[in-house]
Design brief:
This protein is of the alpha/beta class. It is built from 13 helices and 15 strands. The structure holds iron/sulfur cluster.
């Protein structure tokens, strides 16, 4: 697979050993548990990390949450889970980080929003207090602006200036500019308080695809900070997945974005880990990174025999997902493997020959035999009632050898 082009212009931020900036894109996610529930939060962080999340963020919204952070981290380390945990602070971060020093120490990074640090004259001093803690403890900080919580003082000033301008910006363009200016001014302020640029990550999250693309293209041009990328409040189900994929793909293709989060509103029964798998699939589909074998399956049509073809494609995909934790250690190269499961002889043999290993099933009315191709050569012809089981055995043997 092609690896992402190295962008030497970005600052590289080290988050407890995970490097963000200029190299492979880092996948991250966020819990939705009450952080004060240390056991439940640690369990969810563990699950997200097992699914592939390289960084996990938790909300630290009150004293109970701040007090629970040390136990959360201790539980993870006892379970041999070394994922860096990020604390998300709004309004009272300055107070919690100072009054709960063990929380401040155990978190790997802090996330603050320039619009939610404080109000009025206290804003700057509270921001400085947060940066001072980060500086003293060598912690990186993400300065993450969000459309829903713009810095109101800055916005009012910009609206005033815009009204007097001979060529005023539209309200949409003004908000986009305000968001970028807000995070970059706060990042510059953090640097003026002594936090080095390689401990700062910035983000400007919005929920509109086109706006996100414009904002990040501008942000990328205007700074060298590592960029956290994500479409915020992307929504539920297909809408959220498609909108996130559309926005992130355009930007990642231009090498914009050093760490990503897919922010989905989960369906009632949806696993929290879904957002991690979608983020990985976006990176894998763009051939920026590989995480697991790719299954090429035809869409099926009137030539496929009943549901057997779909069942086989699903069984093969699930089998490989189950095997991946073991294969990742015993056969690391397997993540680059390509497996084809094709429905009939029309495109089946051709696609199967291009894959590392492929099966072309018999279509309706065709002979009930299924040729297997390994690295372009026909290796077996399967017959009988257990074609799926035989193929999975051959697949396992192929990986082993
Ligand atoms: Fe239909 Fe065969 Fe093409 Fe699959 S490979 S879509 S079954 S014609």
């Amino acid at each position: 697979m092609n690896k992402q082009m190295i962008d030497n212009k970005r600052h590289v931020v080290d988050i407890d050993g995970i490097k963000v900036g200029g190299g492979p894109v880092v996948v991250q996610s966020m819990t939705n548990t009450d952080t004060a529930d240390a056991k439940g939060t640690a369990q969810q962080i563990y699950q997200l990390h097992q699914a592939g999340s390289q960084l996990v963020r938790i909300t630290v919204n009150n004293e109970e949450s701040a007090a629970a952070v040390p136990e959360i981290i201790d539980r993870l380390r006892a379970a041999r889970c070394d994922v860096p945990v990020i604390g998300d602070f709004h309004y009272n971060g300055h107070m919690l980080l100072q009054e709960y020093p063990e929380c401040a120490e155990k978190l790997a990074k802090y996330r603050i929003n320039p619009g939610n640090v404080g109000f009025g004259r206290k804003r700057d001093s509270q921001f400085e207090e947060i940066i001072q803690v980060a500086k003293d403890l060598n912690k990186p900080v993400r300065i993450g602006g969000n459309w829903g919580s713009l810095d109101q003082k800055l916005m009012a000033k910009m609206m005033d200036e815009n009204a007097k301008s001979p060529s005023p910006l539209s309200s949409g363009a003004l908000i986009e500019k305000a968001l970028i200016d807000s995070v970059l001014q706060s990042a510059a302020q953090a640097e003026s308080f002594g936090l080095p640029a390689d401990r700062i990550i910035v983000s400007c999250k919005v929920s509109s695809v086109q706006s996100l693309i414009r904002i990040y293209q501008n942000l990328y041009q205007q700074c060298r900070y590592a960029l956290h990328l994500g479409l915020t409040e992307a929504g539920m189900g297909n809408k959220g997945i498609v909108a996130s994929t559309a926005a992130l793909s355009v930007l990642l293709q231009q090498h914009i974005g050093d760490t990503i989060r897919v922010s989905l509103t989960p369906e009632p029964n949806q696993a929290r880990t879904a957002e991690v798998k979608i983020a990985q699939q976006i990176l894998q589909s763009l051939e920026l990174q590989s995480f697991k074998p790719e299954v090429t399956a035809c869409p099926g049509c009137g030539r496929t025999t009943s549901e057997f073809f779909q069942v086989l494609a699903k069984d093969v995909t699930e089998h490989m997902e189950q095997k991946m934790p073991e294969w990742r250690i015993s056969h690391p190269g397997v993540k680059d493997m390509n497996v084809a499961v094709m429905g009939c002889i029309v495109n089946g043999p051709g696609e199967s020959k291009h894959a590392d290993i492929g099966i072309s099933l018999p279509g309706t009315g065709e002979k009930p035999t299924a040729p297997i191709f390994i690295r372009g050569q026909k290796s077996h012809t399967l017959k009988g009632d257990n074609i799926a089981g035989q193929f999975i055995d051959i697949l396992d043997e192929f990986v082993k050898n």
